[in-house]
Protein 1
Amino acid sequence: MTTWKDRLADTMGPDLAREIDIFETQIELRRQDKLEEKVFAETRLRKGVYGQRYDNGQRHDGIEVQQLDYRSEYPTKGVETVWDAPGMQRIKMPFGGLNPDQMDVLADLAEEYSDGICHVTTRQDIQLHFVHLEDTPSLMRRLAAVGVTTHEACGNAVRNVTACPLSGACHDEVFDVTPYARAAAQYMLGHPDFQDFGRKFKVSFSGCASHPCGLATIHDMGLIAAIRTANGKESRGFTLYVGGGLGAVPYQAKLFEEFLPVEELLPTAQAIGRVFGRLGEKKNRARARIKFLVDKLGLEEFRRLVREERKVLPEDPRWTSYLEGVSSDRERPLQAPVSRNGVPPPEGYDLWKKTNVYRQKQSGFVIATVALPLGDLSAYQLRNLAGIARRLVGDHVRTTVEQNIVLRWVREEDLPELYTSLQAIGLAQPGAGTIIDITACPGTDTCKLGIASSRGLAEELRTDLATQFVQLDEAVKNLRIKVSGCFNSCGQHQVADIGFYGVSRTIDRHKVPHFQVVLGGQWTENAGSYGQAIGAVPSKRIPEVVRRITDRYIRQRQGEEKFQDFIQRIGKKVLREDLEDLMVVPSYEKDPTLYSDWGDPREFTMSDIGTGECAGEVVTPLQFGLTAAERELFEAQIQLDEGDFPKAWHLGRGAMLQAAKTLVREQFRDVPDEPEAIVSEFKKRFFDTKIFFDKYAGGKFGNYLFRPYEQEAEDFTDDTARKIIAEAQLFIEASHACYARLEPEQVAPMTQLSRLSRSTLRKPGGAQ
């Protein structure tokens, strides 16, 4: 008798079917404790299966549980075993390509195995949350039956290959990069030379250099379409960048090759994979991305090693076989354009068309963006969207890095019908690609690394801005806001016009959710520049931050001045001064609303340290010291903006020293001011004892202090200054977190702030 698994195996092919069968066996072996957890963890990650945060440590019925993941330490409260804990399933969508059959299956899986929601990510993937581990093999088989895999969606491998969703239809593209992105994704998937990595590897394709497209500069390997003319003949190729990445310490990718012929795309990628696999860091995951290898070796040496590796690669016919079909690998419309008599458009149509519709270079056709708040759509919406696509565009659907879905090859005359159909299922929101189209990572909703509620903040900002969208100045409408729940930049906050990432602060032993305000990033020109943090503001005050910054931009903008130019001209110092009153946190008694996050009614408990005499707040020397470190770091950023790289570098290093000294003096008040003594005492008292270590990051942030004092930079450049400033920011955040973990008796309370102010701000002659 033929089973459904046999029928699916016939559709998937024997190799993929066998892989899923093996994974199912490994799940059972792990359940029986017959497979080492370390091995199983990487196995499931390579299948796209993540552990996830579970309602912030609270069950929906209010029963407290431990943070759950697929580890062997079984929780003792709330659930019997770790297998009861839901996780997240990531699903790869190379270059974001989707068709209606795949959309139907995704909708079915969301209903049957998840919470009924499909989530589009900033890598054009699809994610399903609250999926049980034991259900994942069945889910994978059903995806594979429609040509979709979860293999290497996570883990130390090549992640989803992204590409511009306008590829093939954009007026400004050099050529359509879709077939090349598809070929790269297929070639790298499971290839032995792309397996032995210490961390993930991200690849993107851009059709042009001026637009965001594939965001080449933030990728481990970013490719931008290029044409070279020789002897009157045009040849296709790519401008190749390597070693980019956002994350905690952002690196802009370096130019590896001005023109890489398309014939050399795959062998060069293979050579890069081999060099990275052989020389990349394996033990210290914090230094295991290829950006650190390029930085360590230097671009010239890295390029030399790759070229040498390329010379000795055994010939592979797949390097060029895909090129034979490139000329015919073009999308064709489902229907030819026709002319219809004009019909009055439905209400709201004009605004939606203005913001969500892009006219293709092919006459008579457009691309319509389906804007997805927070990147989410329900199974019901996705299933109906599949039906709309079947009727109007066929297989021409793609996800975007801004967490939306686009329908390509829409006939212009079908736009009113499309809008009405989207409106009927709640997917006709205008504002795609504008200030209300806010990107956000999962944050504290489901991510175990989330510090603050990025989704909660994004929803609040979107709601607030949407109510006034029509009245907004056009220059403000076109800004991008991006939010990350922590410093890891999954929300891409560093390349937004206005970015935010979650941090925490401790006030009177209460934790207060904050967001660092990041300015100076550039979304265009493939993420042309990275922004920097100018200060942390309580989460509940971030909407006011957006209002003040955008209002100042409108008031003081010069002509058609772009936002990045405005930030550079005004300066971060002035902008920070405009926000400093928002950074001051009143006591819990005065304003308890600041002590909870967006979308979470739970509040922090009262501190054991009461208010002092004169109704002043209790302030510790540690709080003052860390504030001084932040101030010094901000001065480093000012010097960086002014081009004084040596001074910026030394101020960044000094900011870390100030934070370290502050911590050390909680245990050793008489530590000398000499840097060597401070660093030595910090290492002995906080690093070697692991007091400074974070649960997830370990001691990597401590190393940021040691390196610049062990060896001063050989040269002071924009890159070296930016790097140490980013590392100093992380070191200071880790110092705040360390302070929050210290036992109360380890922190010596200081005189009330009001009394301190009177003693330190006394006028000459004793006058007050």
Protein 2
Amino acid sequence: MPPWRQRDIRQLLWRGVRSKLTLPDRASGIVPLRVLPLPNLKSSRALIIASVMTTMAMVAIEATIVSTAMPQIVADLGGLRLYSWVFSSFLLAQTAMTVVFGNLADVYGRKPIMLVGIGIFLLGSVLAGLAGSMPAMIGCRLVQGVGAGAMQPVAMTIVADLYPARERGKVQGYLASVWAVSAVTGPILGGLIIRSVPWAWIFWINIPVGIAAATGFILFLKEGAQHQRRSIDVGGAASFTVAVTSLLVALTELGNAHPTRLAVAAALFLIAGVMFVVLERRSAHPIVPLGLWSHRPIATTNLVGVVAGMTLIGLTTFLPIYVQLVMQRSPTTAGFTLTTMLIGWPAGATTAARLFHRFALRHLILIGALLQPLGAMCFVALTPQASPLLPAMGSLVMGFGMGLISVPSLVLIQEIVDGAQRGSVTASNLFSRNLGSTLGATVLGAVLNHGLRASGTLEPITSDQLRQLLNTHGLISGEAVIRGGLAQALNLTFWAMLALSVVTVCLALLVPPTAITDSMTEVSRKPVAAPQPESLS
């Protein structure tokens, strides 16, 4: 067929599509949709996904570098007892703000909330690099967590806006590859930064990446002009934040001999928790829709995310300090043991994305849950003389299992609600994993402190001793005793991880079977912040 005839046929087909996309005239009260030429359909969507990937890369690289460099940071700033709070503060803010920003994305649109999140995250990154003490570092990580709480749910919601269910799983598998690339580059960058320049650049490296991501969203993400204007549940968000914070403080005090602080924190948690439930039931637009959580597929799937997040945070938080201080390995080796987890996660997510249209979603979630205790056994078996390949293998298995859990869980809950609730339900799943990470860092941190106190090692360790443990071997008095106490406390922490992984399996057995749809109308039925036709293909 001649090229000119092919061009005419394409134009006729596109005119037919355009006539279906264009709504009635203004007399009906509906403004016609703006339609651009057909080639822009795919190019616009690809550029938006590139911006999403850049945002994910910023958070993924940050997680790898900070975890690898934390032993050096705590050695410079002091405050070993506050070690887990560097992670807990970030996760607390991320957890609390995930549901808030997920709701705001349904109200004001995805683009403005994403840009606000990037700006807050970059501000926290700049301040973290300037921190001069452990409390200041914890505060800066709190700011970073607020930004991450906006970026993560909105990024996943944008993907759900642009792709139908069956395509979405494949795309999320591709997006998961960002974690694999970050897993490889993160420890390398971390090792170069620690050796060559001040550790502040671990945080400042986010600045150019964040600017690139924000530029992409500004230029390419086009949203509909109409949004649902509704009140924001400020009281629910505030009471939720107070409840979670007091719970973390109470869990921390379980490992300390301060019954008064424990009692006060527990009482505050109960009061704030009751207020939160009352406010959410009365609110016309609750920040955490309790009705969604009462739906069995959503409730059980999110509970799996909570406990799986508690288990996995033990690797990110405590494995690097074990490898560097107990096994006496380099930061690069410690980064390698985490890298395998961040390679296994996207590999599992990609596998799940290719298989969930053939197998039941709950079966994939269950298989991923079963891999969690299998990987945790590698850490229980760790000794100071063990090869780094053992924790690397455990990290790989647990990461692969988490990948099998994450994608089916997200697709499952997104497909049982309408488009107007997709941002909220997506945020609920991410909120569950973040809440699990927050609780896990705090609970496992309390277990670590208990183990240190039981071994008589908590008080003798100072900032100078930590620095010497990192930089010298056998040159300080009592080094063997200190390393032995750390090994004993961290081993107890790994046993707690194993117990949590078993609970994950039990909860995965409760997830009911849920079918997914195959229709593109899942994208077009959303009344909130619907993308323009040129964003669809």
